[in-house]
Design goal:
With about 600 residues, the protein is mainly alpha-helical. The chain has 22 helices and 2 strands. Helix 7 packs antiparallel against helix 8, helix 8 runs parallel beside helix 10 and helix 15 packs antiparallel against helix 16. It starts with a helix and ends in a 65-residue tail after the last helix.
Length: about 600
């Protein structure tokens, strides 16, 4: 019988090459089975006689050994062959079943059910090999590339048996695929996190380049390139949509984490960050918000089914990078305002009345900063920086006015109008986001200057309108202050009534665009003022003239003191020592409260 078992051991090759040899071997096995059965019926069997079915069992055991030996040769246990080679060998082994199906089934008696028997043996061996790989994956011993290769194979594994009429196999290899992908997602997040930390750490030393988007470095480009790469791999490998969404979730979490690190750096290290570094952070964040994030979302949406792609957005990431850019330009404005604040005490003083030096120094200082920024800062945020600079200066200017009320003299009105003209002329040199808004902010100074001219008592509400529009929270203290100066006998309750009436009218105008703010305000102002304030004798309006510029020279103020040449690119280290920690565009937070008597 040894010869018979040798034939069964090599049955896969012999069934194709010399099938009659297999047939002869199977006949021998069948005759032996019949002989054993006959002797058993006649009581001729001895204790040493093998029992019924032993030859069939021995045949199956020999087949199991043959299959295991074939797997051991092609896929040795604990082998370190490349994943693509492993998959090729498994495909080769699956082809053995085609031999069983086409060549062996006709040779074996039906009761062997030889195809299903071999199918179970092959599937058990393959499942065991895949399970071994999954266990290695849990220990991070399988590369991400290999996991994707194997996942692709697992996705088509069951399809390999459809030609044999097999739909399902147990145990299910997709469970191994799930475990591998869970490990894959964890490895991707770990890897992306490490990359993000490295990019953040190297950001401060990255080379800066000046281009169409201003001064930038490659940190955000590398960041989004890495995120896009991971998503592209998942899409190209045709992973299930849920895995693509999980990887997108990783990208979102790590980008938010990176943005948080950038924001923390901006808030905590502002004392040591150069002007160029802050500008780079603004420009990079703005480009990420406007381009990179939307590309990430659109590419992912294109790879998802319509029901999952609909409404896909990354608004949280957009907001995070928008906040970095917004905070960055507020820090820039804080730096500029810190130097402008050194000039503010000279306003509403004798020096201010005698010369134009305070406003000329202010214009020169602001212009010096803006000239430094105009070529390196993104155009959008450069315009917003200008707008916020004007707002901060107007607020500081008005604060100074409130703090010097005992010394107010009629000459203040003309000098304030001159200051407003100087600032407006400087603003014409630069592009702004909203010229009308800046004009409105500067018109507050003009309006208050006219209020201080007693020849125009009925102009109060007309002048108050821009004040309430630009600085609604602080309109009442300013109105109370100026009107008390105009007419000390005017009750504060009346001023409050006038302010509230004007505010109400402006709100009505916002709701009804057919109304205009001017006519209703004029009507209310005249009715209230003519009722309470006796008409004064009209005086000839004061002619407002700007003092000739050639008599005075402006001195820009900067932290280093005096005029400063623009330093070469990438070499300047601006100091931010005096910037407040609280980055707020509203300097009226500490405005002294004025009691309404």
């Amino acid at each position: 019988m040894k010869c018979v078992w040798n034939v069964i051991q090599d049955v896969f090759s012999l069934a194709v090459e010399v099938p009659y040899v297999v047939i002869q071997a199977l006949r021998v096995i069948e005759r032996e089975e019949i002989a054993i059965e006959y002797r058993a019926k006649c009581g001729l069997t001895s204790g040493k006689e093998v029992s019924k079915g032993s030859f069939h069992s021995e045949c199956r055991a020999t087949l199991v050994l043959a299959i295991a030996s074939r797997f051991k040769i092609l896929l040795p246990p604990n082998s370190t062959i490349p994943m693509h080679e492993f998959i090729l060998k498994v495909d080769e082994l699956i082809e053995d079943l085609a031999i069983v199906y086409d060549d062996m089934v006709p040779l074996f008696p039906p009761h062997y059910d030889i195809f299903n028997f071999c199918l179970v043996q092959y599937h058990t061996q393959i499942f065991g090999r895949l399970n071994d790989i999954s266990d290695k994956g849990k220990e991070d011993k399988v590369s991400l590339e290999d996991v994707l290769e194997l996942q692709k194979f697992i996705a088509r594994y069951h399809e390999s048996f459809h030609r044999f009429g097999i739909e399902n196999l147990e145990p299910d290899v997709t469970e191994i695929g799930e475990a591998l992908m869970t490990n894959y997602i964890d490895q991707v997040e770990k890897l992306v996190r490490e990359w993000c930390d490295r990019i953040h750490d190297e950001d401060s030393n990255a080379a800066m380049t000046l281009g169409s988007n201003g001064l930038r470095n490659d940190s955000h480009i590398n960041l989004f390139k890495m995120m896009h790469q991971q998503l592209s791999i998942a899409i190209e490998r045709q992973l299930a949509p849920r895995y693509i969404l999980q990887i997108l979730g990783i990208a979102e979490r790590q980008l938010l984490r990176f943005a948080g690190q950038q924001m923390e750096r901006l808030k905590q290290e502002w004392k040591t960050l150069s002007l160029e570094t802050i500008v780079v952070m603004i420009n990079n964040s703005h480009l990420s918000e406007q381009e990179f994030i939307s590309k990430l979302a659109s590419d992912t949406s294109a790879a998802l089914p319509p029901e999952l792609a609909e409404g896909l957005e990354l608004s949280r990431i957009e907001q995070a990078f928008h906040d970095i850019a917004r905070t960055g330009y507020e820090v820039l404005v804080d730096q500029i305002a810190d130097d402008l604040d050194k000039i503010i005490p000279s306003y509403f003083s004798q020096q201010w009345l005698d010369s134009r030096k305070p406003i000329l120094d202010t214009v020169a200082t602001m212009s010096s900063y803006l000239e430094d920024l105009k070529d390196i800062l993104n155009e959008f945020y450069f315009k917003k920086t200008i707008q916020l600079c004007v707002e901060r200066w107007v607020i500081a200017y008005l604060k100074r006015l409130l703090n010097c009320k005992p010394a107010i003299v009629p000459a203040f009105s003309q000098r304030m109008l001159n200051d407003r003209i100087e600032m407006a002329q400087m603003m014409k040199k630069y592009p702004v986001v909203n010229a009308q808004l800046i004009e409105g902010q500067l018109s507050v100074i003009e309006g208050i200057a006219k209020l201080m001219d007693k020849t125009e008592p009925t102009s109060f509400l007309l002048a108050f309108a821009p004040l309430a529009q630009q600085f609604p929270r602080h309109a009442l203290p300013l109105a109370n202050f100026v009107m008390k100066y105009m007419s000390p006998s005017l009750p504060s309750s009346t001023i409050k009534e006038m302010v509230e009436s004007c505010t109400l009218t402006m709100k009505m105008q916002e709701k009804d665009p057919l109304l205009t703010a001017v006519n209703p305000v004029r009507k209310i102002g005249r009715a209230l003022l003519e009722k309470i304030i006796p008409q004064t004798v009209e005086k000839a309006p004061t002619e407002l003239k700007v003092v000739k510029k050639d008599k005075e020279k402006a001195t820009p103020i900067k932290k280093s003191g005096g005029a400063k040449e623009k330093p070469p690119l990438l070499e300047r280290q601006d100091s931010l020592d005096n910037i407040p920690v609280v980055l707020s565009s509203d300097l009226f937070e500490d405005l002294p409260a004025l009691e309404i008597l």
